[in-house]
TrEMBL record:
Protein name per Swiss-Prot or TrEMBL: Gcp-like domain-containing protein
Gcp-like domain boundaries: 38-93
Family matches, as Pfam families: TsaD
Organism expressing this protein natively: Candidatus Magasanikbacteria bacterium RIFOXYD1_FULL_40_23
Amino acid sequence: MLLIIDNTEDDKTVLSFWLNKKFVQQTFKKIPSSRNNDSLLICLDKFLSKLKISLKDIKCLGVVVGSGRFTSTRLAVTMANTLAYGLHIPVIKLLKNFDQNLALEAARESVAGKYIMPEYSAEAHIQNKN
């Protein structure tokens, strides 16, 4: 039912899915390269395959916002909003260390067609690589 994307850590992505009345979670190590922005989609594909479920089994998406790197947060929110739009399902935002029961309640009360905005812990830090 509910898929949660936590892309806030520098070195890992955590995906969780509510399955059989419990959250199943998998952590993926991030590839340290700015050219691997598709790795979030690859993680999602591997996770769903492992659980033997498809995108159609997702009834709501949750995204952890408010902490983490600017680009990582934007990628997670953009992916979730895009999937929510394509699948006609709701998307909710969650804060780091969210309560799972409250996340499930928010998912049940959410409606499709409303999308989330990224929230950041600080201003964007743009680094010149010259």
